[in-house]
Design brief:
By secondary structure, this protein is α+β, with helices and mostly antiparallel strands. It is 20% helix and 34% strand. The chain has seven helices and 20 strands. The termini are far apart.
Length: 343
Amino acid sequence: MPAEYATFALAPAIRTGSVSPGGSHRAHRDFLDFVVDGRPLLFRLADLDAVSPLASDIPPAILTESVRGLLLDAEAPLAGGRHVIYGCPECDGLGCGAVTAVIERDGEDIVWRDFAWQTDDTADLDFNGYRGIGPYRFRGDRYRAELERLLREEPDEAAPAARRVLLIGARAAVLGRLAAALRTIGIGADIVHDTEGVTDDELRGYGAVAFGRAVTEEARAQVRGSFERAGVDVAYVEGLAPVVPVLVAQIVAALDPTPPERRRVTALAATGAEAVVEVTSAVGVQLVAYRLDRLYRTHEKLLLDDVLEPGTHRIALDAKAVKGQSFLVARTTGSELVVPVER
């Protein structure tokens, strides 16, 4: 008698991009995650910065090849019938490491088993195998139907809007640095004073609008009116401060399409004494404080870089790092949250 069946589905997910005042950055990636028994499979891997092979920014031919491999309509790319389940977000090689698994047919069913962390041609299950993950048995017809729809769907013309933002503000230098930072992580950005004369088709190309603090309420109303008349539903971001990493984190959070129930970090609050972070599954979390001094220079300090277990966590803050006008950013591989430090 076959083992108990697991359900299989695909759901949108992201690997968030981020920047630091020093100029380092990591790329933003949109992909489809594997949802097993109603829960993203990536969430079972505590602190993994990785994406599935079903990314939205790869050429159609490569996506088709990946899907055919998962359907077992093509040869397995790795020895022993192994397939890449999650790989490096920055490259497509095994050198950085990847989560792989054997995918095989068992009668009409599809089985994923022997999950392992793999960095070369051969997986060492004794040393790098994932204990407690799998095997998963899926009903073959439902498994195929979920993946085959990717081969039938036409490219989504609205997809670029999820990664494009309109920047409106009074400080040209800050806007220029912000636009450049967003572009380095794969988010398109355009700078305008207002939306007068912008066509409806152009407005449909944006997923968010970010206002600087100096933008008047009258100007904000004009922009909102333009998008409403065009029938475009966008996210509006009220810039907290002229600090590029903070603004990037706000925009990344606004563009996040992940349903709240599938996010790992669901809440963040901060006072001068502590931060409160709510986590739904084990995940690596970075807490970074950004502070503006009296000369409006930005100071950055990493306050936490650790794996947090599910639940609510209270974390003491360094008083010097959050004095004055300061902000706290919580980063994971799949989301960013940012809040001002309340007094």
